[in-house]
Amino acid sequence: MVVELEITDGAALVRYPIALVRGRRPEVADDPGHSPEARFSFDVVDLANELFGPRRSRGAAARRSELTSSSPFSGGRLDIDAARRMASVHRAISALAEACSGGSSSLNALAIRYGTDKWGGLHWYTPHYERHFADLRDEPVRLLEIGIGGYDVDGFGGGSLKMWKRYFRRGLVHGLDIYDKSFLDGTRIRTLRGDQNDPAYLTAIAEEMGPFDIVVDDGSHVGEHQLTSFHALFPHIRPGGFYVIEDLHTSYWPEYGGTDAPVRGSGTALGLLTQLLDGLHYEERGDSGGVPLPGVDDRTVALHVYRNIAFVEKGVNAEGGIPLWTKAPSQSVAAATTAR
């Protein structure tokens, strides 16, 4: 396959078609007219900084990327051959992106090894995960990921579960999917079959297998399902843990219960995050009277939002609020303003 590397220097532009073949060193393709599977664009200075500059704690994107391959679905069903082809394309793209970033993230490398889409091709999530999860890497974490991948195809999916198992050396990894993925069950990986839109079921598994340190929602991406899962599972996350919602872009897609209007609807993941941001400041809000939504407002201590992914950090949110007397300007401030 061919991935096009585009490098700009002001108005100057150079394109290199890079041939990527398993087991061989990357090289410039012999056929420059070959249609690329993807395209990466770098400013030459940004690329130099990525390769030779100081190592950063997280990988802020210095590139533009474009995936040009076609959909792996045919007639509403997953075409397994096309899906395998796309998975190969994603692995190649991921490896090239990692090489162009100076090898900045071990989680990137694990994503490439196990074929998860959390790095390369569709998404660029792993640097954000590593930023927030690095301190937990050697802890005996309990992680639940909603959505295992592979749809209803036997023996397909599970790349993320394998990645998490390797990253969290002492962790227990649980995966939930509406399809049977029991072929993945093994040491420190357990799969569950169920509906993320069933709050009673989610509560039952959380009571049995939790509390969790991390919950990752990479399931249906339907707004109603995302909200149901959050409200059922967030109470079962330990203090210091994270609830992660991936693929926030579906909040803009009506097919997933979203809206393309400028203001996100309350029934979407982005609408939920807006509510959580308000709830984070419940002690300062006049409309709530300092009364939190139990288990959510008083247990959300931070929101970390990146493109298409958000981390909700759990803890105790009860700092006491800003004193009410600060609402009125002090006499000295009023006098100084009048004197002007």
From TrEMBL:
It comes from the Bacteria. It comes from Saccharopolyspora erythraea (strain ATCC 11635 / DSM 40517 / JCM 4748 / NBRC 13426 / NCIMB 8594 / NRRL 2338). This is Demethylmacrocin O-methyltransferase.
